[in-house]
Amino acid sequence: MRQPWQLSMAFRYLRARSRNGFISFISLVSMVGIGLAVAVLIVVLSVMNGFEYELQQRILGMVSDAAITGLDGPLDDWQAVRDRALAREDVVAAAPVGAGQGVVVAGGAAAGGVRGVGDRRCAARGQHRGA
C-alpha cells in the first residue's frame, strides 16, 4: 500500500537510526511542542470568546437600545411618547429613565453618574434587567 509523500517524509525523520537518534528525539519534542501550543491556543481563544459574549450581554443588558429625549430639556408629556412608542410592533418595552450627576461610593470605590428606571409597570412585567 502506497502512502502520501508527506507521511513518508515525516516517518523518515521520526524513525530512530543508530547514528542519528538525537535528531529523531528533537523532531518528536518539537512536534509535541507544536501540538501543545495549538491546543493551548484553541482553549484560550474559546475562553476569550465566551468571556467577550458574557461581557457584551452584561454591559448591553444595562444600556437601552434607543433613547427619546426632549430638545431643550425633559419631556413634559412622556406618557404619550411612551404609549406612541409601545404602539409599534418592534418595540418590546419602554420606560422613563432619570439621569443625573452624582457620586456613588461602595467599598472604597467611587463612580460618577446616576441612571435609574422609574416605572413600576416595567418591573412588574419582568422586563426590568438589573445587575
- Strand % is 5-15%
Number of separate strands: 2
List low-pLDDT spans: 123-131
Described by strand count, sense and barrel closure, the largest sheet is: 2 strands, antiparallel
* Strand and helix order: HHHEEH
Shape: elongated
Task: Tell me the distance between the termini.
Answer: 64 Å
Determine Rg (CA atoms, Å).
31 Å
User: Structural class of the secondary elements?
Assistant: alpha+beta
The mean pLDDT is 77
Number of helices: 4
Strand order of the largest sheet: 1-2
Summary tags:
131 residues, alpha+beta, two-stranded antiparallel ribbon, 4 helices, 15% strand
Structure report:
This protein has 131 residues and is α+β, with helices and mostly antiparallel strands. It has a domain at 5-60. The chain is built from 4 helices and 2 strands; from the N terminus they run H-H-H-E-E-H. Strands 1-2 form a two-stranded antiparallel sheet. The radius of gyration is 31 Å and the shape is elongated.
In short:
Helix content is 49%, strand content 15%. With 131 residues, the protein is of the alpha+beta class.
Fold topology:
Blueprint: H1 5-14, H2 21-60, H3 78-86, E1 97-106, E2 109-117, H4 120-124
Antiparallel strand pairs: 1-2
